[in-house]
Amino acid sequence: MFPLEIQTLARLLLEECRDRSIRIVTAESCTGGLVSGALSTIPGASDVLERGFVTYSNRAKQEVLSVPGDLLADHGAVSEPVARAMAEGALEASNAHLSVAITGVAGPGGGTPMKPVGTVHFATARSNKGIRHTMERFDGPDRLDIQLASVVMALTMLRDAV
Hints:
Helix content: 40-55%
Number of strands: 5
Structural class: alpha/beta
Shape: globular
Order of helices and strands: HEHEHHHEEEH
Number of helices: 6
Strand order of the largest sheet: 2-1-3-4-5
Strand content: 15-25%
Distance between the termini: 26 Å
Largest sheet: 5 strands, mixed
């Protein structure tokens, strides 16, 4: 179902987390659960993958991850502050040690001059270790390409955070 690169990254991440007794939670918007889906295709993932949240709407981000409404209103869902709040909220709403959050514009519509299609914000948070953010602009050419590129980035960031 997933390209070999994603399968390999997912397997390596699970092994590294298992060796260090680290549990993961995902908070996904534009990827719609693909990161947790990629992890869950690997046998034995349940001892690392604690849970995954798909918070596609702003309301879900507020209700499930406690993202403040004023943060969404001031910066928009596709922003560094929201990605950071999603990562932090996922940790607080789970029993995990490490989270990843993804929020972006996968297209084909929805882009603006300030946030064109392919703009994706990522954040990882680790208990007592702070939050790391990055923003990418993926070229596509289509929605699935942007989503899969986002999965690769999220898995890579998680590995870096381990």
